[in-house]
Request: fold
Amino acid sequence: MPSFAVTVEDGVPPGLRLDRYVAERLGLLTRSQVKARFLSAKINGKDVKISRTVREGDLLELSWTDAPPVFLVPENIPLDVLYEDGRVIVLNKPQGLVVHPGAGNRCGTLANALLYRCGGEAGPSSRPGIVHRLDKDTSGVMIAAKDEDALRFLAEQFRKRQVRKIYAAIVRGNPKEDRGRIATFIRRDGRNRKRFVVSEDGGKSAVTLYRVTRRWNGCALVLLMPKTGRTHQLRVHMRWLGNPIAGDPVYGGKEDRFAEAGLMLHARSLSLILPDHLEAQTFTAPVPRRFTCIMEKLEG
Reply:
């Protein structure tokens, strides 16, 4: 049974319920998972209901049930491997490949491919070695662990935000500044549960640094450095900035001339410490062909 202890930080709005704090501020579980995974809690050592409000300085002790395992079948899906040793594998995920099985995606995923490559057998699995994820339409560097100790070692770096990630994106329009910092709260869109929006009244804190590296007429090439790892963070932040990522079917709008090319977002590099190593290493995925095609058109 997973557990977590944390002290409520300063600046919590009055009347914030425990279940909302866990979902929106801590990001440990979604609102639906809070109930489905039977979240239980203590505040300052006393058992409380999840409807209880939290206050600055409260010590929370949380526990919940494990997620139900997913039955995985190994599949021989080709992988573009950037690095591999006995503990981890680093790969360049292609656009269109789903990372983990879910509703409507029980096979043909990265998880199925990793299970095959690492010699695993069909059976129940929660997240076979997968430490982080990329959206289906995002390409680029990912890392997966081959054993539980390696998984915990890598996951701890992600949890403590010690991993450095750089994404390349082609965005519509030209950002006003050559570089900047975006710091907002992000929450689910109340009108569309598959989308996220910038919020001024709650949600999860999200920080992104950006730097423009090339400008064209109506588009720009931007490097994005997320300091937090919220779902759709980069896509939401660039839309909020007024420069949605080209080819984004969810946040791009109808006037996107590059809609057919797909999402122009690529995880360019990933820097972190590998198990049994002392210093951080950087892994880089080449810019994909869909990027070079659009840049050639913009240059011409």
Summary: Helices lie at 18-26, 31-36, 110-117, 148-159, 233-241, 289-299. The first strand starts at residue 3 and ends at 7. The chain has a mean pLDDT of 88. The chain is about 20% helix and 35% strand.
